Amino acid sequence: MQVRSLFLLLALILVAATAEAGKNKKEKAKKDGSKCEDWRWGPCVPNSKDCGLGYREGTCKDESKKLKCKIPCNWKKKFGADCKYKFESWGGCSAQTGLKTRSGILKKALYNAQCEETVHVTKPCSSKIKSKSKGQ
């Protein structure tokens, strides 16, 4: 009987300690010092050149913050790294222009970026001729 009571008491202490630890984690997450909810974020500005690690500045009323960000070095599109698009497959090669085209529909705009709903991109046609004789 005493063993059962002791076990029940330990279980209650463990539950209370776990609940307190969870409460502390929630409080720490809220302690970023800001109660503002309407943040306006600028574009990611690389530390050097036009890609790589950098920062973006945000403002809300009289507060300001800087967040770390990264622009991939292969991302040099005119519509920016904060606009995410769902692209269709590349179209056929135009004999007149020597270019392929495809369009993309806006999927997500990060950090309140001003993005176009639809974008069109082109690239040069491949000069290589692909053969399908791989399995022979």
TrEMBL record:
Residues 1-21 form the signal peptide. Residues 23-79 form the Pleiotrophin/Midkine N-terminal domain. InterPro entries: Midkine_heparin-bd_GF, PTN/MK_C_dom, PTN/MK_C_dom_sf, PTN/MK_diS_sf, PTN/MK_N_dom, PTN/MK_N_dom_sf, PTN_MK_heparin-bd_GF_CS. Residues 80-135 form the Pleiotrophin/Midkine C-terminal domain. Transmembrane segments: none annotated. Its main location: secreted. GO terms for biological process: positive regulation of cell division. It holds the Pfam family PTN_MK_C. It is found in: Secreted. SMART domains: PTN. It comes from the Eukaryota. Keywords: Developmental protein, Disulfide bond, Growth factor, Heparin-binding, Mitogen, Secreted, Signal. SUPFAM superfamilies: Midkine (SSF57288). The keyword Ribonucleoprotein does not apply. One of its GO terms (cellular component) is extracellular region. GO terms for molecular function: growth factor activity; heparin binding. Belongs to the pleiotrophin family. Secreted protein that functions as cytokine and growth factor and mediates its signal through cell-surface proteoglycan and non-proteoglycan receptors. Regulates many processes like inflammatory response, cell proliferation, cell adhesion, cell growth, cell survival, tissue regeneration, cell differentiation and cell migration. This is Midkine.
